[in-house]
Amino acid sequence: MTAKILILPGDGIGPEIMEQAERVLEALRARHGFDARWSHALIGGAAVDASGEPLPAATLEAARQADAVLLAAVGGPKYDGLPRERRPERGLLGIRKALGLFANLRPAILYPELASASSLKPELVENLDLLIVRELTGGIYFGQPRGIEIRDGERVGVNTEVYSESEIERIARSAFEAARLRGKRLCSVDKENVLEASVLWREVVVRVSKDYPDVQLSHLLVDNAAMQLVRAPKQFDVIVTSNLFGDILSDIAAQLTGSIGMLPSASLNERGQGLYEPIHGSAPDLAGLGVANPLAMILSVAMMLRYSLKRGDLADRVESAVKGALAAGLRTRDIARPGEKVVGTREMGEAVAGLL
Ligand code: NAD
């Protein structure tokens, strides 16, 4: 079946890095029998400029019809003064909500060539390859009751960590499935010694694990997990955790790699449909200069191939091509060490596509 992809270049460096992602898609189509068609739509500031809204109905409808959505980034100083509902980020939040994207997958990969970019010693992080699966639509960020109220004559702030069995089960299944596509080891992170929500979390994860006998399951308390991530991050394959813990742990993991321009992400719903995007923003400081690193965007294409389009073979090819470009010494400005030759966005994209 022909895969249907929706492309949302967005704002800032978005169109420049997306052009390179499309170059990669074209190379896969021309040389590796990739059966797909893609179309473009507006989101974020670009959509505000064209229609006054950050998420036009036509974009949302096209996203619903697609097997996968590739998004670059939204936002920029031009839009900072707009009312909240018309801000570019509302487009992003709106599409995540409308598609029911509850599973956020964030890999942290450090290629040996870039090991010196990490704040940790190179030997601790060289060849790091871990994946954090974060629950994205539940937990304390959404739980009721919430608010600021008066109790015993003073103000108290209240938030509630709440997870249903079905919410835990579906994120656990996503994580086990992801582990199956990788090293087959899953570590579930919770705070089971203090929180009832975590007691249930652990119980349900253990129950779901019976359906995945080929995946080795372990558990860590979140405080220990944070410590282990900076002590010996290479011990992990896949980590699954709640919204709050995942928010924090995934940023620690990203920082281990030292380069925001290299990290892709995926957000999936129950149908396996996904939104794929770099973790970085629209980098308005670099927009139009042709210097942004397109690799996070290109690696988002690889994730899309693996998780939504079930073409792990093509994902491997794209990831190998990225490794090849780095091994050949190509560096955009953000990942170059002093004295290294720097290439632009387009040159990096062409090199990766050329290696496919
Ligand atoms: P940012 O990620 O855009 O930039 C942070 C720093 O990283 C900047 O110095 C930038 O030049 C650099 N950088 C980012 N991507 C890069 C790349 N591919 N290659 C080289 N360098 C890169 O974050 P910010 O500056 O906090 O935000 C800028 C705008 O992006 C804001 O409007 C913000 O709201 C938006 N934003 C969007 C998303 C998203 O679309 N998912 C995420 C974060 C921020």
Question: Which tags fit this structure?
Answer:
356 residues, alpha/beta, Isopropylmalate Dehydrogenase, ten-stranded mixed sheet, two-stranded antiparallel ribbon, 12 helices, 40% helix, 19% strand, binds nicotinamide-adenine-dinucleotide
Mind summarizing the main beta sheet? 10 strands, mixed
The number of distinct structural domains comes to 2
- Assign a percent range to the helix content: 40-55%
- What is the overall pLDDT average? 96
User: Total helix count?
Assistant: 12
Number of strands: 12
Bound molecules: nicotinamide-adenine-dinucleotide
Task: Determine the CATH topology of the largest domain.
Answer: Isopropylmalate Dehydrogenase
CATH architectural name of the largest domain: 3-Layer(aba) Sandwich
Distance between the termini: 22 Å
The CATH superfamily label of the largest domain reads Isopropylmalate Dehydrogenase
> How would you spell out the order of helices and strands?
EHEHHEHEHEEEHEHEHEHEEHHH
Shape: globular
Radius of gyration: 20 Å
| Contiguous runs where pLDDT drops below 50 for at least 5 residues | none
The quaternary state of the protein chains shown equals single chain
Sheet/helix structural class: alpha/beta
